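REQUEST ID: PR-0412
SUBMITTED BY: lab tech R.K.
PRIORITY: routine
TASK: structure prediction, single protein chain
INPUT:
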Amino acid sequence: MNHTSNKPRLNRVFYISASGIALLVLFGAVRPTLFAEIAGNIFSFTTQSFGWFYLMAVFFFVLFLVFLAFSKYGKIRLGADSDRPQYPFFTWIGMLFSAGFGVGLVFWGVAEPMSHFFTPPYADTQALTVESARLAMAYSFFHWGVSQWSVFAIVGLIIAYFQFRRNADGLISTSLSPLLKDRSYTRPLNQTIDIFAVIATVMGVATSLGLGVLQINGGLNSVFGLPNTALVQVLIIIVLTALFLTSTTTGLDRGIKWLSNVNLATALVLMIFVFFAGPTVFILETFTLGFGDYLQNFIRYSLRLQPYQQGTWVRDWTIFYWAWAIAWSPFVGAFVARVSRGRTIREFIVGVLVVPPAIALLWIAVFGGTALHLDLFEGTSIAQAVDADVTSALFVTFAELPLSFLLSVLSILLILTFLITSADSATYIISSMTTNGSLNPPLAVRIVWGVLLGGIAAVLLIASGLEGLQTASLISALPFTIILILMVYTLFSLLRKENMKKIK
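STATUS: complete
OUTPUT:
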């Protein structure tokens, strides 16, 4: 059993992964064009050759979690049998949502439905029609629903089980230890697994940081006329990095906990305002119909590819989302595990798979539904504006609502606090992963990772913008998907053994 060391020690995982990311930052900064060209080629190869693998893996995770929640294993507690949840329900959900996909949802809440409305998922659907609007909402619900959160739930559940039930460290490699046994090659193999997990996490977090920075720049451009350029984006990243490094020094229970509550409250205030200021009944009807379409098409969308039409829509959207979620998952999973001690497996799965996706779908119905209503019935052209500049989506919609300036400023602040929370949590988790699973990694290590996170996000944005961010997630997620499937097998084996012992 790998108990967490009291003294955090740097190891090969730290040196190799930090050096690898630092070299990527350097290469991207010195040769951005070549960096973008290589990344583009790898992106095409990965999506064409392994798209089916991402779809099958995520569909399998959903089925496994549903089975686990309703099985006899659902009663097992993540901790000792006497343990009870550490955080109140609202705080727990706030932490899940902020560290999870808060910033991505603020970015895509309007941008995704309007993108699908302008360029429908199916080639035979006419753009900018009632049919394309309905399809846009159904697909947006699918992308932000249970499937995406199933990836976070899988990783969080496995780490929490090992960390709190078996008193092991929170490393990804530890969750594979029963499979690997103690052989001569176990240690280097464990370190390789952790390096893959660290690199996937850094790329996933950098993608989200980059998206948030793009949107802050889009907001500053819409509200204050600040230019939408790489230089402004790099300056935003520098300010952001300084802010989240400051937050990092306050620790988990003060900085992140406080910011998580502020984030959730601000997001809810924004959503409630738009819900009442926008087309309220239309939003409710859109939510109801969209939810029905989502349930009805779940299997079809989950396993949809385009081998006959040779199209790229599924690769550009669904496969990117699943890869992004998988790349994020070591961080979100480890963080979700950290704040879920004392909950039962059933409580954990239902909490993670129901509440954050429900908030996400409601958010898309409110913001995306308002934008769709404006375009369909009030003659605005938000979809065209989003097609021209995806980062402006939220702010172009706000321009049509009362108190638009205040809404835009509040949104920019919300994105900023979401980014600080995500980056703060991520530096903590990555630092823990590179110091033998320490629950209190040294400040110097957290600062190194904070700087590298900011650096890789800046490089990806300068080299190839949104495409560069998507590529980073997709490539780094591929080896980690295989690791995830092995982790599921290990967890199920251990749960069966534990249940057998109880029966005896």
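NOTES: The first helix runs from residue 12 to 30.
REVIEWED BY: pending
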